[in-house]
Amino acid sequence: MPAAPDDLSLSNPPRVPLRVAYFPDAFHEINGVAHTSRHFEAFARRRSLPFLCVRAGPTDGASKDGPVRTLELPRSAFSFPVEKDLRFDLAYWRHLPRILADTRHFRPDILHITGPSELGFIGAWVAHHLRVPLVASWHTNVHEYAATRSGWFTRLFGGGGPRVGRQIESAALWGTALYYKQARMLFAPNAELCATLERATGRPCHLMTRGVDTEAFSPAYRDRRPDDTDFVLGFVGRLSIEKNVALLVAIEQQLRRQGTGNFRFLIVGHGGEEAWLRERLERAKFTGVLRGADLSRAYANMDAFVFPSHTDTFGNVVLEALASGVPAIVTPDGGPARIVRDGDTGYIRADQDFAAAIAMLASDAAVHAAMRKRARQYALSASWDGVFESIYARYDAMLAANRNGAAD
After folding, report:
1. pTM for the complete prediction?
2. CA 408 – CA 404 distance, rounded (Å)
3. Separation of alpha carbons 399 and 206, rounded Å
4. Which of 26, 66, 187, 198 has its CA 20 to 30 A from that of 139?
5. Rounded to an integer, what distance in angstroms lies between the CA atom of residue 165 and that of residue 179?
6. Quick check: is 14 in a domain?
7. Residue 105 shares a structural domain with residue 232
């Protein structure tokens, strides 16, 4: 059963619902922050909670649906890419007067930012200006990404490269901690990361795990042909260096050396390493980004989910795979290892042992069938509503503590 986001819940909610202004660094993109943000807004709609979401997007304007309001403002032509579908806009501050006016009119009790982005910095400034308590959630291991992406630079130092890489990671963590230190309270998707943040910032940190829509992701979408006997190895996510996707090529080579031939890869997503993977994987189908029922079918038609990332803070895609009845093989590092139960809903393995775990799973139909069933059962216990109920309870507890402190 997934770890509870904390012991608090909305069983005794505040009499007047809290007014939450949320400034995510991604909303429409294909990544974990955006995925969580869309579900956060949907939760507020379901519960009719006063909620303002200020975000970047293709439209320019505000909308209101009951107590839920959105302010979506476009990035400029001067923005630059951070990922294939994510940009950073230094000129976004041109929207500050409008953002400030809309936030002031909304009268938030809490202002919640996510990662260090133009929206995050603006949100922190607005919270300070309006004297609204600021909270922040960590979704991306920026420090590990910085170290991974600087590989070209650290290689210039030969044998000293690993040491330089550690220094880059340490400096990136220090810089990111300064950003998060602005907030009174932090959230992170796993306990280890929470402990790191508390040490680095001196701020309290609580769990903000993830949920999954078990109707949208379900074994019911499986529609493989009866004569399709390949063992399908799936990957869903950004095809980038920090996802360790090069391991997929090594896995294929190891499986072939072991004599395992009846397998193929199904790779969903895009990113900078796609061309490299296409050149080297002999048996793989690349679908690009999928959404809706197409994504649900892709998951359900996999036999094992292969996720070699060492840097993911949680791993939404792993939970989606489990909900689809697909056992997952993940590394011991980061959030995915807290989702998968080794030997029960998948395997937790070092890079060099992925191929052996896949071969073992593919060779025993009974074990594979049992894992598929248990993976689905595990995912059924993960609820988005439970995640956000806990967040609201933490908001309320923090505000209550502030009121009590002021009264003292």
Report:
1. 0.72
2. 6
3. 15
4. 66
5. 21
6. no
7. no
